[in-house]
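Posted in: Structural Biology > Protein-Ligand Complexes

Title: Requesting predicted complex, magnesium ion in pocket

I'd be grateful if someone could produce the 3D structure tokens for the following input. Sequence and ligand are given below.
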Amino acid sequence: MLQAIKRICGDPLGLVGLFLVALMVLSAVLASVIAPYDPIALNIIDRLQGPSFKHLLGTDQLGRDLFSRVLFGGQVALKIALISISIALCIGVVLGMIAGFGPRWLDNIIMLLFDTIRSFPTVMFALATVALVGPSLSTVVVIIVITSIPTYGRVVRTQTLSIKSNEYIQAELAMGASTFRILSMHLLPNVVGPLFILASMDIPTVIALEAGLSFLGMGVKPPTPSWGSILNDGYNLIRNTPWPIIAGSIPLVLVTLGFTFLGESLRDLIDPKLRKSL
Amino acid sequence: MSKNVLTIRNLSVNYQTDQGTLQAMRNVNIDVPKGSIVGVVGESGCGKSTLISTIIRLLATNADIPNGEVDFEGRDILTLSEDEMRKLRGDRLSIVFQDPMSSLNPVLTIGKQMTDIQYRDKKTMAQKRQRSINMLESVGIPDPASRLNQYPHEFSGGMRQRIAIAMALQAEPSLLIADEPTTALDATLEVQIIHLLKQLQSTIGCSVLFISHHLGVIAELCDYVVVIYAGEVVEEGTVSDVFKRPQHPYTEKLLECDPANIAQKTRELPTIPGNVPDLVSLPSGCIFKDRCHTKIDRCDNERPQRIDAADKHYVSCHLRSPQ
Amino acid sequence: MSVLEVNDLRVRFRVQSPLQALVRGNADPFIDAVRQVSFSIEEGKTFTLVGESGSGKSTLALAVARLLPSAEGSIKFNGSEVTSMSDSELMDYRKQISMMWQNPVGSLSPRMKVGSLITEPYKIHGLNDRDRKAEGRRLLEMVGLPAHFSQRYPHQLSGGQARRVGVARALALSPKLIIADEPTAGLDVSVQGEILNLLNKVQDDLGVSMFVITHNLNVVRHISDHTAIMYLGRFLEIGPTDTLFAEPKHPYTSALLAANPEPDPDALREQLELKGEVPSLLNRPSGCEFHTRCPFVQSQCKDALPELAGEESHHYRCYFPIAE
Ligand SMILES: Nc1ncnc2c1ncn2[C@@H]1O[C@H](COP(=O)(O)OP(=O)(O)OP(=O)(O)O)[C@@H](O)[C@H]1O
Ligand SMILES: Nc1ncnc2c1ncn2[C@@H]1O[C@H](COP(=O)(O)OP(=O)(O)OP(=O)(O)O)[C@@H](O)[C@H]1O
Ligand code: SF4
Ligand SMILES: [Mg+2]
Ligand SMILES: [Mg+2]
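-- Reply #1 --
Done. Output follows.
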């Protein structure tokens, strides 16, 4: 672990990534402490102001403090990303291991399912779902879960297949170990490494998707702050003031870059085969 | 110097462990003359695989090299860049690993892997495939053409090992390093591989660094032999010198322990009593002293130097030093 | 009494999918990796299996442990049929047998430490009453590894050390039958002697039976009571080890004995040179399956498979056995 941190610090991009991610996580977690205002408190008198000491990033058309809204928007984005990716990971791992370890026919069915889901473009699928059940936070989560399960499931399945033929799995079977024990004690630990990297690189995609849906008014319902809805408000006000657009897009860009850098540097670190290949 | 393909000088390797620094190899000198086959023997865990990993620069992440140089065809391998090293491996320098599965990708067919490693050659796919078939044939894999479409786990242990050998030979390297390549083979195939290596040596002038516990194979195949004990070279010389007139007590014991040398059937095979010293806290004096049957007082405190016992026959033991 | 009795065993692998077989018009998309194999192991005795690489030795071992299904034949362990055991019977069976694997590092789960690896059998079989740490130390000591090795991961072991860990794990539950696939490959002669002495000692103390697969003929001579020689999935010769070594009847056996390299640089071997290729399981030779390489082949050999014949316990499959 210590070595891992040392190695990341040796990689400048990784370090930048780590810093940005840490910044985002900290500010999201501590949003209620840091934020100077209530993100949904209206203050019509101060509406559409530029940055000042009173309002670091200015205010929107309803006079809400943009800095506070960005902080709480980050909280919402992170919450959605973490919840939906964790759920997708769990389901993906289970399905992937069943597909890889179980009988051939089950494998075929699960793979067919994955391929079907993946053949829909994500955005189309999202629009259709929202149209059907209406926009809400949980709809966003469900959409992300369903569309990312196949990616994780496939990775887990490939890993499972390659580990399954190893002698140590046979050795476990010979000692009488149950399938559950083999899956949980011997397969899982060897599968999760690459998966976490994949997931960490997925976080920015999910955040962008949430922002996109909210921008279209199909994600988080107002007045809950979201980077997407901040952008949407800003878009409508672009003739009056550029600040809401700037306030909504900067964190989005930084967070995407941060997670991508970190993910790549983690991948080089954890996957020794990539470094050690002949 | 230039007569040697590989010259190792004063090489040490350490592993960082929870118990402290494990000195897996200390001040090792080895020469591999051009066109010759050098055997390495020694106790399990004495550092043979470590030696190989150092030469091909694939040491574990907790290893470091405090001193030494590894000169391969006039270049110090330890100072090459990662890129230059990659170019050497699998071209001038081929390896057969102790664990054949580690050099085979479980999810690709053998055929794919064997044609993939020929990426340097500008040949058609069919030619590459044919070459793979020929190589598999020469290591005695029956029905090679249809076998190319199978996955590693569908082969027996010995077959995987032979596939690994075939892949290493495909490149016609100038140095082939083989870590116990014949352990999983039966006697007739072992002999076949020995012939194959000898033939390779005479046709393309390839040198071989050959690690094996099978003293019979070493005797049969090698020109020179290096005996390692607990990370130090204790004896080195031509095979006939070392096997006929072993100078170091360890070599002597090792030869005695070989069940092939024991005519009478027994349920109590000879062993060398005692244990390998702890490489984390090395004892003073001779590394073999605790298990030596001819120990003298000097052995306890003073480390024996490498001395000439005969022409090209070196040994590190106080019993052989002139004093 | 026989601990293990194997009768007419056959193990097959599918080498073509049903579709491929249909397209190529191949009626039999299987290979027989083990064919017509019969033998028994007496209590407290050692049976060794020698044979060409790829001849089906490991497959036979896996089938005996029921890690591979057998297509035909029976396997009896202490009188009960292994091939038809229920899950719970199988669990009990696997408690009484243990395996030592051909690949020492590869058979150890890479993310577990040695300490947990060797005490795994206790966990699997729910034996929680024992002090696992103490057991771990006892086992490590038994195979001659220092106690601090329990903190190491498999990749931090040398090949020989990993093999000792495998031995320790195999001995954990004091099994009735040990199936050892190449137990001494990759060990120096001294450690090899230690491991074999250890196995011999366990056998003498606990009366364990052993099924040992090895290539090392020098070892066979010292440890085994009965030996079988396998070729293309069949036994070519089977009999008491001493007899087999003294008077090999089958040409392949005598070629094997002659090929065994001796640790003498000037040794001139009177070699019985085997010519030709190792045949493929996909395409078994007609008649005696060894005829493509046999130095004594006659036209009769190419027609029909010779039956196992011979006197008392020494049997061989050859029309022209080597005369004394
Ligand atoms: N990554 C590692 N971390 C710590 N110790 C290690 C590591 N790799 C090897 N060792 C130790 O270094 C010593 C030398 O190991 P090495 O694998 O080179 O032995 P070897 O001579 O190849 O043995 P064998 O003949 O059994 O394969 C051993 O004591 C081993 O336990
Ligand atoms: N899963 C599998 N699918 C298809 N064929 C297989 C499979 N496993 C083994 N075989 C084939 O069965 C034959 C016997 O293999 P086995 O592993 O039993 O040989 P072995 O006698 O143990 O050889 P070695 O001494 O080299 O380990 C080989 O031809 C091998 O290719
Ligand atoms: S120097 Fe002494 S202890 Fe060392 S091997 Fe020689 S006689 Fe034995
Ligand atoms: Mg080794
Ligand atoms: Mg095998």
